[in-house]
Amino acid sequence: MLPSLADIHAARQLIAGSALRTPLVRLNAREAPAEIYLKLENLQPIGSFKIRGAANAMGHLSAETLARGVLTASAGNMAQGVAWRAHELGIPCTVVAPETAPDTKIKAIERLGGRVIKVSFEEWWRAFETRTFPGVEATFIHAFDDLNVMAGNGTIALEIMEDLPELDAVVIPWGGGGLTCGIAAATRAMNPKCKIYAAEVATAAPLVAALAAGTPQTVHYQPSFVDGIGARVVFPQMLERAQKLIDGSLVAELDEVKSALRLMAERNRIIAEGAGACALACALAGKAGGGKVVCIVSGGNIDFAKLCEILTGTDS
User: Fold this and answer.
1) Which one of 88, 114, 140 terminates a domain?
2) For residue 316, what pLDDT is reported?
3) Distance from C-alpha of 196 to C-alpha of 179, rounded to nearest angstrom
C-alpha cells in the first residue's frame, strides 16, 4: 500500500504546528549539468525532514496510547523527530540506536528527553523488523515502513509542486525508503512526467542492487560520515513500493558526496550532513539528467569536527 494524495494533504494539516514549510532555492552553480534546486529540510527544527513523518504518525495515535510512550529505531534523525514530538506532548520516548550513531545525534536526542539504547547493527536492524525491543513497553514508530510516516514525508512534494510545478526530476536520499516513497507517491499523482530517482552512497547501496535483481540483495555495508542513509538490505515491502514509483537509484561515491557538501557550503552557505548531500552529488555528476532538477537536502545534522575536516580537505 501507498499513501494517497488525500492522505498526504491531510498530513499537511496535521503536522502544521510541528514542521516548517521549507524553502526551495536554486543552487548557485551555473556550471552544473542541470538547473538544480535544493529543498532545504535541514532547516527543520530538528535539522531533518523526519519531523514530518514522526508528527503525522504520532498524530494518529490516541491520547491513551501516547501516554504509554513511544519507541523508535534510528541512527539519529528519526529519533530526533520522535523525541521532539514526544517532548511537545510530554510523553516518554525510547530510541534504539546503532553503536555507530554519531555523538552529535545521540546528544540531540538526549537533550529532548529521549532515552537512548545503543546496540549492535544486527540488533538495531532487528528492531525495524520486529517493531519492538525487549523490556520496552511502548508504541513503535517505524522510521520508514509506515503509511502515516510516508504521508508526512510526502508533504515535501506538495511544497515542491507549489514552488516549481514544471520540474523535470527529483532526487531523494534513500535510507529505508520512507522519504522516497512518500515524495514519489505525491509526485506521481501530481506530475506523472517527472522523473523520480533515489540516491544512495556507494559504501551502502542495497536499492540499486535490488532493483537490478528484482529481489532484495545483501550488499557490503561500510560505515562512513554518510550515516543517515545506507543499509545492508532493502525491506521487501519497500522494494515493491520503489519498483512501482521510481525511475531508478543513482549512486554517489564518498568523494562526490564530500564535494557536494563543500559546494553547498561555499555557494549557498548551506550546512548539510552526508545523507543530505547525496542527492546533489548524483545531480552534479549528471546522473539525473538536465532540465530542472530538485535535490532533497534531507538533513544537516553533521558532526562539526567532521564537517570542518571535509570543508578543509583534511579528512582521511
Assistant:
1) 140
2) 64
3) 12
